[in-house]
Amino acid sequence: MAGKKIGILTGGGDVPGLNAVIKNVVYRSTSDGHEVTGIRLGWRGLTHLNCDDPESVKHYVLPLNRENTRTIDRSGGTFLHTSRTNPSKMKDVPDFLNKDNFPSAQSTKNGATSTTYDLSKQVLSNLERLEIEYLIAIGGDDTLSYAATLDRLGFNVIGIPKTMDNDVRNTEYCIGFSTAISRAKDSIQRQRTTVGSHERVGIFRVFGRDAGYTALYTAYVTSIRCGIPEYEFDLDHMIDLLMTDKENNPSNYCLVILSEGAKWKGYEVKEYGAPDAFGHRHKFSVAEAFSDEIINQGLAETVVSDLTYDLRSGVPDFLDTMIATTFGTMAYDAFTSQRHGLMAAVSEGKFAMVSIPDPKLGPRKLDVEAMYNKERYRPSYANKEKLPLLMTHA
User: Fold this and answer.
1) Is the pTM of this model over 0.90?
2) Residue 384: inside a domain
């Protein structure tokens, strides 16, 4: 394949391992005579880029080479920076564009009407003017949902899944997951000394708006109870189990980990702040609400730890580095074989190229019956023989 120009971007929340993808794509591409263009700030870099303004080009476009990517895999975050931008539903159109030139849609919520604009025409125009022929989009459900849209519009896209929630469909693994659960495990094990010294109930909150993978796998290796979004637990039963754990522990303490989207029967999830580009609002801490229930019943004192952002920060562990590097290679190989509309993935424990998930299907969920003990509020430990490494059930 003659020299081509490949674009690459990262969207949504950052996780450890993103830079390993970027570096590997650059190294493979430049070795074969191709150019790589980094798009800064995710999809925003293609909606807000004004190719006629040198300052805008400087801000949103970063040519990538071996020199400026040589050491980026040694750190976390994303070298290209990121944003939560949905080009097909933009509330604000950049000043240099005429919003009347783009399709619009109106929606009403709580009596207020809002208008969004589809800037896909601007995205395609910028890709053409940058002479980018292939695009690698690294992100979670939201970022990949627009990648699927762009592919349907006829542009060559390959997706790479990343999210510490591990909830992207069509793959058993997303970049960032291993580092997140390793950090969660280490943090919980460290805090045992403090929780135990004060004979309290330790309550840990982790990310997981729609899926409980991070909470469940952390609970699996720390032998504690967990609450997940896929199953509403009984509040009194959970508290009884924890008080029994506390009583049976020689140090008179107990621990539980809750996904941010976990809830008990009768609990109404409360949100705050304006929705992001994909309609998500921040959730009030279920860990704090659960702590209040224990304290109000006069059962014990608590320690609440929000582990969320700490788990996605810093350098990636071995598994995330290895998989990120491999996903980058797979994305590049897909382009050299002139394939598109695919996503690097792990399927049945093996690396595979699969379809970019259909956005209408939403996040991947835990198989509650197979993976979660609904009576004990723990992971299921039995019947693991012949399952893939990550014990994911079909």
Assistant:
1) yes
2) no
